[in-house]
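Structural prep section.
Before we set up the soaks we want a predicted structure of the protein with zinc ion in place, mainly to decide which crystallisation condition to try first. Input record follows.
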Amino acid sequence: MDGGHQCVFLGAQRAITGINVGDFAIDLELDRAAVTRASIDSHLLTLWRTLTHATGRVNKRDVGFLRMRFDSRQKVEPGQTEIETIDGRRVPVKLIVNPRARHVSVRIDPARREAIATAPSKRHLKHAAQFATERAGWIAQELSRLPRGVSLAPGSFVPLRGIEHELVYKHGRKPAFIEEDLLPRLVVPAPDVALFESRVLRFLKDQARTDLIDRVATHAIALGVRPERIQVKELRSRWGSCSVDGVLSFSWRLILAPPFVLDYLAAHEVAHLREMNHSRRFWALVNKCMPDYETGRDWLHENGSKLHAIGMAR
Ligand SMILES: [Zn+2]
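Run finished without errors. Recording the tokens verbatim:
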């Protein structure tokens, strides 16, 4: 190749890369093949070679044709996918559409231990996927920084109302109980060790429900409201919610946190029975229930991901 051709080569490659890299990434991702910057580049190079070999040069029309071909391929749908880092690690990414989003973005969801790539519309999903691919290294690093998962197995240590308890298995059918000691233990009988985890979970949910009913009642009286119902369940993306018909839902994991944290969430959701927003008026109501509510809010901000790591054996 002489100098002149070299220029054409670079120019053409840039043109194709610039237009098609995103589409390529999507194609590869749909095939569940490795998607790396290098693999995309090598594909483009092969493509360019084939093209120049066939035509002797690359012109605008060819590039347009390529673009058309890739665009006509299967569109990216919202859902779970995987991307690959330069060093070959596979990273889970969830692709979602959020019409309120203004740009494509990537964030880490510590509760689900995955990255979420958001696009403002379905049309932008492939750009969101590409955006995530370019940040695969960052995503892998952030995920590896998350607290290690704690399984609800005999011998594990799990906080209960903010205090570490050792989980102890006992053969039997009696209800679980707490042994207060220098090292508190949560003794959970089960007819079989295979049922241990579900029994632990049941106990923790029951405890959470008891405490929440108590705290919600207190705050409801303070604000002169009446919740329709209280639900305690697995909530992955938030700690609590309040439905328009007055049903308050809470994450069972609140029982793991110190009591003022659960108390804050109870006050927060009860306040939503009066103000279905996060306005100044809303926070004034929370403040009325719990003047130092910020301590609870800050605690969750700082430690929430640790609570989400509990009950996850990863
Ligand atoms: Zn809220």
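Observations: Residues 268, 272, 278 surround zinc ion (CB under 6 Å).
Flagged for discussion at group meeting.
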